[in-house]
Amino acid sequence: MHTSLPDFEMPNEEQVHLAAESFRLLSDPTRIKILWALLQGESSVACLAELAGAAPTAVSQHLAKLRLAGLVKGRREGTFVYYSAADEHVRRLLAEGLFHADHIDRGDQDSAAPAGPARAAS
What we know:
Oligomer: single chain
Distance between the termini: 40 Å
Mean pLDDT: 87
Order of helices and strands: HHHHEEHH
């Protein structure tokens, strides 16, 4: 049935695996808080720990996993590392997830998609 659709194309195995891994890494509430904070701007582990309500060592471990998955990047300045979201794709992915969660919570799942991350935080 689907193969008869002219523009139908399944993602390849590598794309599926990488997407599933990204979603798996985003399944942790602390990681979502960390990423949301990083979408507002560059930050240090200590600041992220305070914002996420987690110990700095735990935040460092979360950041290491997020960095390996390509969701965050680090910039070294002397002995400090400042983290930021990897790119605009991360912003859209997280904004859509939060927007969707907000609408499930409110019971209006048929609403239009957000224009940007600001709506996800409302």
